[in-house]
Amino acid sequence: MNRLFEEQKPSTPTGEPIPTNSATLDRPTLTQAASISAHRWSQSLSGGAHVLIRPINRLDASAERGFIDGLPSDTKRLHFTAQIQRSTEKYSALLSPLDAANEVTLVAVVKDGAAEKIVGMARYSNDVAHNRCECALAVGDDWHHKGLGTALMKHLIELARINQIAAMQSRELAENLSMRTLLHELDFHVQLDPHDARLVIYTLELKLTSD
Question: 114-137: per-residue pLDDT in tens?
Answer without folding.
Answer: 999 999 999 899 999 999 999 989
